[in-house]
Amino acid sequence: MADYDIVIVGGGPAGVGAAVAAAKNGLKTAVVERHSMLGGNWTSGYVLSILGMYTYDGTEKIVGGVADEIVENLKAYKGTNGQSHNFIPFRPDELKLSLDSIVKKYGIDVYINSLTTGAKVEKGHGVSITIEGKAGQKSVGSKMFVDSSGDADMSYFCTRNAIEGKEGEGWHQEATLPFRLGGVDEKRVISFAGKRKDLVSVVLNGDRIERLRVLPPLVEKAKTERRLYLPNSNSEFLFNTVRPGEFVCNATHVKIADFKDALEISKALHDLRHQAVSSLNFLIDEVEGFENAYLIDSAPSIGLRETRRAIGEYVLTRSDVLGNRRFDDAIARCGHPLEIHDPVKGVVYEHLSGGDNSWYHIPYGSIVVKGVDNLFVIGRCLSAEFDAQASARVTGTAMAMGHAAAVAASIAISKSTTAKGVPVKELQEKLKEQGAII
Ligand SMILES: Cc1cc2nc3c(=O)[nH]c(=O)nc-3n(C[C@H](O)[C@H](O)[C@H](O)COP(=O)(O)OP(=O)(O)OC[C@H]3O[C@@H](n4cnc5c(N)ncnc54)[C@H](O)[C@@H]3O)c2cc1C
């Protein structure tokens, strides 16, 4: 007999969305997470914000359901004040606490500090996964599985088939190590930006800075004069973190050839930490208002935007995204542009043809893994082309995919059918009843 109804590999935004929704739908649920915290890139990678809950211009809400509950719980822990333009800023530690509380509330088993290293598949049916930790190896069986590892680990272990990087070329988006800084005098920064529009731009939310960009002329000059070590960026972006005077910065960038190569990641982290400290010192020296700024911390783990993607029943394409495609088997909406941190061209955005107030559908086929009848894939390793993933990976959308996978799993179990056999209309109706926006 299976240990669980559903086992979710990876406790990031997608996995947490799936776990909460699964437990709320009555499934005996477990999450396996290799780090010491839930939240994935939110809490281990210090990504700047929750994007994807709204259209890119911030005018329409396009994700609801379980994602709303996660955000409301975060508010209760004072980890966010909610929407700021098109994103939701947050503080990572409050988010860790709020996620702990929500999994406890719903009785979800969390195998923390546990790496999933293998899977047992019989005749195209997932039976169990192997997890490894201080107690050695353990097998965990389940009726349904969800791969929310970000790296398509489970899908790869089951099928030995996945796509890494840009099709035909193999390169990856650059990695970043965000860092947090405090002690910024926002009033002085706003006044400096008013005087030196050529050097610094700010977007305000009331009397607070929502986001700040140190522009290429200032950055390039400091780099040329060797006062700034930032080899792969020509500007610095900082976003507020809820607390006055505190920002998170995503200026650092490094090329990644193989995300599985421990020695390469080790060198990359070393370089990224060097970039972070150099960036902070540069801000202190060059931008009025940063004189008393200090490093709070850098992210616990490297921020990987894109690594390996599963192959599903459908592969979401670049033209689906840019063309605002609607699908009959829709399970979620996404309005984020293509955002590619290209190692040669820098950060490149391509906006949806319908405009920044528009969205496209995530289809059910792109979260159902081909060749394994009880496995879903969600979040940044969904079944999508490289370019499409560069849009669909944002964390609001990841939670929405998690909600859909969990409800689909509950239907599959109740009807004794496969992931592919789930009646999509019933799935859509249930999702809508639970507040999801399709
Ligand atoms: C620098 C940076 C900035 C970004 N900025 C934003 C932003 O501002 N807003 C936004 O919405 N998105 C942003 N993104 C994108 C976003 O962070 C990811 O796409 C998002 O985290 C996707 O969620 P996920 O749950 O699919 O994956 P992840 O967040 O990567 O979570 C995967 C989880 O699985 C765990 N895991 C992996 N392998 C295993 C295994 N074998 N066994 C057990 N556990 C495993 C990981 O530890 C992790 O907790 C940014 C990304 C980066 C790197």
Folded structure, characterized:
- It contains eleven helices and 21 strands.
- With 438 residues, the protein is of the alpha+beta class.
- Helices cover 30% and strands 24% of the residues.
- The longest helix has 25 residues, at 262-286.
- The chain has helices at residues 13-24, 66-76, 92-105, 153-159, 186-195, 216-224, 262-286, 318-322, 386-392, 395-414, 424-433; strands at 4-9, 29-32, 49-51, 87-89, 109-111, 115-122, 125-133, 136-147, 163-164, 179-182, 200-205, 208-214, 236-240, 247-249, 294-298, 308-309, 330-334, 338-342, 346-350, 360-363, 375-377.
- α1 packs parallel to α10 (395-414) and α10 (395-414) packs across α11 (424-433).
- The strands form six sheets. Strands 1, 2, 5, 6, 7, 8 and 21 form a seven-stranded mixed sheet that branches. A six-stranded antiparallel sheet has the order 11-12-13-14-10-15.
- A hairpin with a 3-residue loop joins β18 (338-342) and β19.
- The protein binds flavin-adenine dinucleotide (FAD).
- Flavin-adenine dinucleotide binds at residues 9-15, 32-35, 40-41, 45, 47-52, 115-116, 148-151, 153, 176, 178, 250, 303-305, 379-380, 393-395, 398.
